[in-house]
Amino acid sequence: MSANLASFLYLVSGILFILALRGLSHPTTSRQGNVYGMVGMAIAIGTTLLYATPSFGGFVLIVVGLAIGGGIGAVIAKRIAMTAMPQLVAAFHSLVGLAAVMVAAAALYAPESFGIGELGAIHAQALVEMSLGVAIGAITFTGSIIAFLKLDGRMSGKPIMLPMRHVVNAGLAIALVVMIVLLVTTQSTTIFWLIVAASLVLGVLIIIPIGGADMPVVVSMLNSYSGWAAAGIGFTLGNLALIITGALVGSSGAILSYIMCKGMNRSFISVILGGFGGETAAAADDDMDRTVKQGSADDAAYLMANAQKVIIVPGYGMAVAQAQHALRELADKLKEAGVEVKYAIHPVAGRMPGHMNVLLAEAQVPYDEVFELEDINSEFAQADVAYVIGANDVTNPAARDDKSSPIYGMPILDVDKARTCLFVKRSLGSGYAGIDNTLFYKDGTMMLLGDAKKMTEDIVKAMDH
């Protein structure tokens, strides 16, 4: 295959990746977006194999590797529960980072195979690209592993505040810059592996202080890192498709991180340095009545059956209980009774961007019934019932009313403005942010304590009686 044809096909795959991102921006076009992405990747892989023209043995190794990796990926994707999607995404990000490290190491030890010079005489530009790619890749690898452990409950979601962490992180960052300069000037393999080691440590130190409430930002941030790592290695390989793909993933992940931070009224720097989420619950206001009004499935069924408008607010509790299908059944019952039903999604509900949208799509909830915060918040005042199913921090009025609260200023769903707020939760414990929810104690709130799926199913049964 000629270089011109390869470049053209890489350009085609890049255009398909752009169309994939555009399609994934809305639920109604997401399936088509996935198709564009898969076709673009198939073209990129096929072009790389034909253009590189490896030996027969090399070709066999590549095909075997693709088969093993693709097979494992297919099995995992088929078996994984939708509730575990955030940790799966984090795990996949770690593999992208590790791949960047491995490719950079291969380029360092066999530069002639990559067309970047000879061992000991690698082009300076290639060394800079390689250094940046391996540093970002190693940070992504260990950072994603820590995120996976936190999301999967194998490590506490609370921030782990190491002494003098900012000084240590700054020292490592400066050391990385110095070592990159040394690698470019000396081409020492020892310096290369020192860069890898320092980056691996930095990846752990960056993510460990970040609490559970900031996990959506962490997931999108690591997504961005993996993209930039891929782009850096794309320059080293001289692979146009990898450069385009990496740049798209890196920039879209950065934009998504900004959207997530805006959704929590926090700056990106405060997320990295602040470690918000999982702290000790805020002290109760002495002037607040701490009693709650507890109801049953029968109470909830009566209120919703006699309502004209119900707004459903799903959260991570719904995901854990896998209650999305029961929720869809409840909504169908209400619509049959002539009740208007809408769904309200907060930008950071769940453990990754779009988590709730994915779960609702799995339950085949109509797309036109699902609304983002800014599009539906004004409607809560006209709603008879707000049915909150496992969403805690994103409905906490303290973010709006209490200037002393750590989450003050974070945009929330104004569920407390509905005539009645039915709140499904296992207990009165704080959410992932560790902040007591003052919504529990408001006059218009009725707590439905129990498993979200069972409670929703019980409400459906009660509506049949």
Automatic annotation (TrEMBL):
Enzyme Commission code:
7.1.1.1
The reaction(s) annotated as catalysed by this protein in its Swiss-Prot or TrEMBL entry are: NAD(+) + NADPH + H(+)(in) = NADH + NADP(+) + H(+)(out)
A Pfam family name for this chain? PNTB
List GO terms (cellular component aspect). Answer: plasma membrane
Its record classes its membrane topology as:
Multi-pass membrane protein
PANTHER family recorded = NAD(P) TRANSHYDROGENASE SUBUNIT BETA
Report the sequence similarity comment from the record.
Belongs to the PNT beta subunit family.
Name of protein: NAD(P) transhydrogenase subunit beta
| Taxonomic source organism | Nitratireductor aquibiodomus RA22
